[in-house]
């Protein structure tokens, strides 16, 4: 049986992601687990300009690569050296993504088992201050010449790999190169134990950067499965590459239900505003209902975009939702449609309505507008959603106060709850927003048997 061989690879590039950048230099060292068998190194013409920042880091400029072969010209040689060998690199997913992408562009379909020497070093030599190549070489007395050049870094990685093989009494490297090994897909800076601690339960997870700042918050029906999905595939887009490199830690909070996880995710994103969360940031309220009084003494209700300088009565995600509620209020409180505006008027627009036939009594009209506003502010429903807990010893509770999300928590199963005040003793308050309220009301409508202590129903 042929002995397992390894291709130790290092590349220099024009930028940080394979989709928009190109390889400028590549070095491949073939290793059989004991000795170096072969070596290949070349500059590569990237067919695009090398940014000054990259020149400052690597020393490679446009003149140096002008007469170098383009990647297509060396692609067969690269493929030959990589075929049937384990692809080894320091932060392997970075190098692998570039090589895979450029081989694919050259017309070759290639994949390989991967081994990350960052992750291998973490397993075999735990407790070091840093696992960057430069710091590892300092810590382990490995010679590192021509730093940030493909040949120099590949030579250092080969020496590191030889030492790791020598120190690997527990067979960690063999475990890691198995195709099914989960940790090969993990970001290079993520401690394995952070991933191992994730449960197969609903909840919210947090990704942290090196400074311990939360950079992403997500919710999951199954925490381990959802987090794993972030690390699978071979996405070469710059956003994902930067995202994975930034992940230095994970924490989580188990929730009893998917709804509670979703509510916690929303509130945490609003509170922490993580760098890589984009989807839920779009659900900020954009419209509101406003009240105006015209010079003729009549009060108007209008739907318009939110403004920092005016206070609205109620907020909405969409213009459509605002229009629907205003129409419902006007019908319920018999407010003349001429005093309802479905876009916020410009200055003076209220006074230009020439249809003054059979106007309602101003006092009665204004009283109805006030009643509608009071209802909107003070008479929306209060209720609890009681559901399963995180264990058999408890129940979960979400409390809605006057139409707004008040908070959520857990009630011991042996505690009898007889009224809403007792429920509120067990919930942790959270800030509400219109998107959260939409989620809760949609859930309540779909699961009426989970609703308790319902006070008043909102008009529909």
Automatic annotation (TrEMBL):
Positions the record marks as coiled coil are none
Q: Which InterPro entries match?
A: DnaQ, GIY-YIG_endonuc, GIY-YIG_endonuc_sf, GIY-YIG_UvrC_Cho, Ribonucl_H, RNaseH-like_sf, RNaseH_sf
Q: Which SUPFAM superfamilies match?
A: GIY-YIG endonuclease (SSF82771), Ribonuclease H-like (SSF53098)
- Annotated ranges, domain GIY-YIG: 200-278
Q: CDD domains from the xrefs?
A: DEDDh (cd06127), GIY-YIG_UvrC_Cho (cd10434)
Recorded superkingdom: Bacteria
Citing just one GO molecular function, the answer is: exonuclease activity
* The keyword Acetylation appears for this protein: no
**Pfam families found in the cross-reference section:** GIY-YIG (PF01541), RNase_T (PF00929)
Keyword entries, A-Z = Exonuclease, Hydrolase, Nuclease
- Stated name of the protein: Exonuclease domain-containing protein
Q: Which organism is it from?
A: Flavobacterium chungangensis
